[in-house]
Design a protein that fits this description.
minor pseudopilin epsh fold, mainly alpha, 233 residues, three-stranded antiparallel beta sheet, elongated, binds zinc ion
């Protein structure tokens, strides 16, 4: 999906003196240009219960993700990142512009996080190609789940744990705050949000229980397989 900027239906100076050429140059040419938008959830807010509550998704998607979208759009205004793709912004701002990076990184992570879950997900039914690769690179499906959960449990403070493709192999990693495998030369195929805003309402301090429920009941393995196929191309 991409958005395109339409031409104005009149010259930039055609509305002067009531709206100046300068106003239209800024308002149309810059403010309207490619900006982050909050996608709808791909399911109802209560569809992931009892593993992730309606209240959690109302806060996490409707408020936290929206804040990353709005703060990201404000941070990008007037910088070299205006008009670039989200992946380019994430990689280009890492280590250079924390306000842009933190919000763009979290926008990228959350866009995918919603897709990485579905009602009646999780479990061991993993599409064939991906299952074979998991067994080859990580030992077994059971071992992958255990190590993924362990990465999330041991991420100190806010962050994410990941399955990512790097150098043709699947690896399990963890990152702090808004970081993700893109800035470490990898391509994320599954991530779990271990910021407290993702689990505190439902699990309080029991992060391991949240990660286990994510793996056993929420992961959309078909979507992970799609990202795996794209990452291997
Ligand atoms: Zn989050």
């Amino acid at each position: 999906m991409s958005f395109t900027l339409p031409d104005l239906p009149y010259a930039h100076d055609a509305l002067a003196p009531y709206m100046s050429r300068e106003t239209l140059e800024y308002h149309h040419d810059k403010h309207h240009l490619a900006s982050f938008t909050l996608p709808d959830l791909p399911y109802a807010h209560d569809a992931l219960q009892p593993y992730m509550s309606k209240e959690t998704l109302e806060y996490h998607h409707d408020k936290h993700h929206l804040a990353y979208v709005n703060n990201g759009n404000n941070a990008i205004k007037g910088t070299e990142f205006e008009g670039k793709s989200l992946e380019e912004i994430v990689k280009g701002s890492y280590g250079k512009n924390p306000a842009v990076f933190n919000n763009a990184g979290q926008h990228y992570n959350h866009l995918h996080f919603w897709q990485w879950m579905k009602p009646n997900g999780g479990g061991d039914k993993i599409p064939g190609n991906l299952e074979k690769k998991i067994i080859a690179d990580l030992g077994s499906v059971a071992k992958m789940k255990e190590d993924f959960i362990q990465a999330g449990v041991t991420q100190f403070g806010s962050g994410w744990c990941w399955l990512a493709v790097k150098d043709g192999k699947i690896a399990i990693t963890k990152t702090a705050n808004g970081e993700n495998p893109l800035v470490h030369g990898g391509k994320p195929i599954l991530g779990c949000d271990v910021w407290e805003h993702s689990y505190y309402i439902d699990y309080r301090n029991r992060r391991p229980d949240y990660l286990k429920a994510f793996m056993d009941h929420l992961v959309n393995w078909e979507h992970v397989a799609k990202m795996y196929d794209a990452a291997m191309k």
